[in-house]
Amino acid sequence: MNSFERMAPDQIARLSLAITATAEVLGQTITSEAAEMMAGDLADYPVEAVSGALKACRRELTGKLTLAAVLQRVQAADGRPGKDEAWSIALTAGDESETVVMTAEIRQAMVAAQPILSRRDVVGARMAFNSAYERLVSAARAEAKPTTWSVSLGLDPARRVTAIESAVRMQLITLQAGTQYLADLRIAPITTDGQAIAGLITGSTAEPSPHLREKLAEVRQIVDAAKARQKREQLKKAQADRVDTYLRKRKFRAAIAAAQRKEASHG
């Protein structure tokens, strides 16, 4: 069942106009009925994802605009890893000391691969994993299911906080979820060093040992640098989006004007 909220009628109507305008930009004319039908088929996906897919189509397509082309770009932007990256994540999860953040499809595909992997047949396990993973991803995308990430906790407390902080920074899980993973009684740190490590996420303070203090300083430097880089990228993206929005609106108005002139000439 679709886990996204279906677009409202007014959103579908605007999407239909955007589809018509995108087709015009690509040198194609489609009927309002066809545009409305495409909009209805795309209405089960998030507005932002569909808008981004149409933008990608305007930039990338050299032929006609099709529903398949839009869907391909909508689904490719859902955040699910490719099969090679997914297999790498699955292998990492086999190390009990590692904390791994994975999607529901990776977790399920691991079930198919684990019996083969336990026989030390890595090649066979990878084939089984890839087959199951691609099938699961295709089914999830066909049902417009959003990508869900969860944390598989490892035994190493330092690696826990590094993996969870990274997942929060990449917006795979929320800050609240990351804090909860560390605050949960099942993984509550019982040593001073453990409390200091958890404090990186929770904001609590504890005096670490000199050795750990040096390591935490290195981690904070990495985190601060990553946050600064992310901020620069966000500013750059915001500026690019403003330019793209201006150009898209101008093309949209031009396409509508052209469509109106065409209708007038045939009137």
Describe this structure in words.
Helix 3 crosses helix 4. The chain has a two-stranded antiparallel ribbon with strand order 1-2. 70% of the residues lie in helices and 3% in strands. The protein contains eleven helices and two strands. It has helices at residues 9-25, 32-42, 47-60, 67-76, 83-93, 104-117, 122-142, 157-169, 175-183, 192-202, 210-266, and strands at 100-103, 149-152. With 267 residues, the protein is mostly helical. The radius of gyration is 24 Å and the shape is globular. It has three domains: 9-77; 79-154, no CATH class; 156-237, no CATH class. It starts with 8 loop residues before the first helix and ends with a helix.
Unreliably modeled segments? 185-190
Query: Order of SSEs, N→C?
Result: HHHHHEHHEHHHH
Distance between the termini: 45 Å
As a whole number of angstroms, the C-alpha radius of gyration is 24 Å
Query: Helix tally?
Result: 11
**How many distinct beta strands?**
2
Which shape, going by the Cα principal axes? globular
Structural class: mainly alpha
Helix share, percent: over 70%
Share in β-strands: under 5%
The biggest beta sheet is recorded as: 2 strands, antiparallel
Strand order of the largest sheet: 1-2
The figure for the number of domains is: 3
**pLDDT averaged over residues:** 81
Lay out the secondary structure.
Elements: H1 9-25, H2 32-42, H3 47-60, H4 67-76, H5 83-93, E1 100-103, H6 104-117, H7 122-142, E2 149-152, H8 157-169, H9 175-183, H10 192-202, H11 210-266
Antiparallel strand pairs: 1-2
Helix pairs in contact: 1-2, 1-3, 1-11, 3-4, 5-7, 6-7, 8-9, 8-10
